[in-house]
Amino acid sequence: MRFTPLAWAKLLFLRDRGPTEVGGFGLSAADDLLLIEDVRMVTQFCTSVTVQFADDAIADFYDAQVDRGLSPARFGRVWIHTHPGDSAQPSFQDEETFARSFGGSDWALMFILAQGGQTYARLRFNVGPGGEVLLPVDVDFARAFGATDAEAWDAEYRQCVFTPPEPTVAQLVMDDRLPQLTDPFWEDELGLWGELLRAEAEREEALYV
User: Fold this and answer.
1) Taking a C-beta distance cutoff of 8 angstroms, is the pair 26, 56 a contact?
2) Angle between helical axes of 5-17 and 150-160 (0-180°, round to 10)
3) Bridge partners of 120?
């Protein structure tokens, strides 16, 4: 599996643009389906450990690429996403998504780029006897390197990536996700912030007594 320099630069930009996982589809070269010429995002809901594409956004993306004259083999077979940590190994949810979303195509490729630079690429064949193979990953610097467009990439990111809001203290209390705030450790470590958290917890508790 190879990337053009420009596609690789864009992927690095998207990976580092925010703190969550992000994903998209790799657009393949007409004469080499394992050469990625662009990475295109769709509307997605992202956390530090998950990426979920919006179904209607995928349909719109497919329609747009077909209108451009591209075949699904060039835009709908290579699933690309990032991991914020150092590991590029697919998670259980990655495997589930790959099987569910790409199991019906004749072939598909899952590519993961981790924050630390590690990569993972696995090609799966879903026809005949089937099979899978791990692929080396490279950037094909013999290809022309067009001008980067960070402004356009940033606009694409902002248009497509949605993250859940940070939970409020009230939500944390209700979900039992705060530590036991009467523990002396938290009194020492959190200081005034710990006092504020305890006060908020007491107010929430009073509402449900």
Assistant:
1) no
2) 50
3) 112
3-class secondary-structure state, position 29: strand
CA–CA separation, 86 and 89 (whole Å): 9
Distance, CA of 104 to CA of 99 (rounded, Å): 8
Does the predicted TM-score (pTM) go above 0.85?
A: no
Please give the Cα distance from 41 to 24 (Å, whole number): 4
What does the DSSP assignment read for 48-63?
SS-EEE-HHHHHHHHH
Residue in the structure block whose two tokens are 């083999």 = 73
Amino acid code (one letter) for 133:
V
Structure tokens at 144: 């022309």
Integer-rounded Cα Rg, in Å, for the chain is 22
Quote the tokens at residue 204.
């929430």
pLDDT confidence band for 144 (50 / 70 / 90): confident
